[in-house]
Every structure is written in C-alpha cells, then in structure tokens.
Amino acid sequence: MSDPRREHDESSAPEGAGSAAPSGEMVPAEQVKAALEAAADFKDKLLRALADMENLRKRTEREVADARQYGVTSFARDVLQVSDNMHRALDSLGEEMAESGDANVRSLVEGIELTERELAKVLEKHGVKKFSPQGERFDPNFHQAMYEIADGSAAPGTVAQVIQAGFMIGERVLRPALVAVAKASPKGPSPSANDNSGTDTTV
C-alpha cells in the first residue's frame, strides 16, 4: 500500500526539477579562446587609435607653431625689398652729401636711417634676423657665391666679402647672403730648373 504523504510530496514538486542541469557546467575551451582573441583584437585597435590621436595632436601643434612662425615668410621677403631700397637710397646720397648738404638733406637722411632701423626691429620682432658671414666658411645652405677673389688675408673657401647680408626666419633661410669667396692665391714662379746662368755645363 502506498504512502499518501509521499504521493503528495511528489505531486507538489516543480515540473522538470529532476532534469535541472548541474550548476557547475564548464564553458567549452573554444569559446574561451575566441573570447580572449576578440579581447586582444579590441585592445590592439584601441592602442592604435590612441597612438593615432596622439600623433595627430603633435602634428597639429607642430603645424600651428610653424604657421605662427613662418606664416609671415612671404610678407617678410617683400618687406626686405623695401629695406634694400632704403639702403640703396642712403648709399646714393653718400656720406659727403649728407654731411655737407643743407638741413633738408640731413633731415631726409636721418628720416631714412630711422625708418630703416625701425623696419629692422619690426622684422626681428617677427623672428627675422640679419646675418653677415664675413670670415666664415662658405656654406651653400646659407650663402650664395657671386664670385671668387684672391685674398691673402682670408683662408681659401671662406667668405672674403659680404655683398649683401642674409636673413633667417626662425631656423630657415629667408634670403641667403650674397658673398665673394676667397680662393687660393697663385703661387709665385718657382726657380726654373733650366736656369743655368753662370754655370758652365760643358764637359
């Protein structure tokens, strides 16, 4: 004869309770490997994106700095032509005329000189600096050779004369200096081996 209490307990048990899967079921190794590979791939992409952003930031900062420093290059080159013209005007007047001329001439010369100095200050304020390579070793990156001269006081290959000063803007050459380069002086004629004056070679 069956026990009524046992039958009641069995009938009240949740449906499917006997077929529940064990709570400690293991995830397949293939899924773990795939998850790790996906995580490594995402990490690599993230690091690449961060590196690209950093490179973009540095490049942008460099371009902004270059634009700030070298943005006036074309304008500065044009202004140099104005400075050259003022310098030529002073040279054409000549020191003698400026000293012996009347008050109007002296005022004109002083005004041109003042303007030239102010212009040089403005250029330097914007990073444009004048350089005169007298006596320096000739460098085609900074100097433009116009001709060679024999100068015993200057070493061969050095700048013996500055025809026109050069200008730099930042670390770049705005206008090379026009120079004359010293060349080796020709050596004097050596005593001739055939000069047998006063010597009798007859046997």
The percent of residues in helical segments reads: 40-55%
- Biggest sheet overview: 3 strands, antiparallel
Helix and strand string, N-terminal first?
HHHHHEEEEEE
User: Helical region count?
Assistant: 5
Order the strands across the largest sheet as they lie in space: 1-4-5
Spans of at least 5 consecutive residues with low confidence: 16-22, 190-195, 197-203
Characterization of the model:
This protein has a domain at 127-185: Nucleotide Exchange Factor Grpe, Chain A, domain 2 (Roll). 50% of the residues lie in helices and 16% in strands. It contains 5 helices and 6 strands. It has helices at 4-12, 29-70, 73-93, 95-100, 103-125, and strands at residues 128-131, 143-150, 159-164, 166-169, 172-175, 177-183. The strands form 2 sheets. It has a 3-stranded antiparallel beta sheet. Strands 2-6-3 form a 3-stranded mixed beta sheet, with no helix packed on it. Helix 3 (73-93) runs antiparallel to helix 5 (103-125). The radius of gyration is 44 Å and the shape is elongated. The model is unreliable at 16-22, 190-195 and 197-203 (pLDDT under 50).
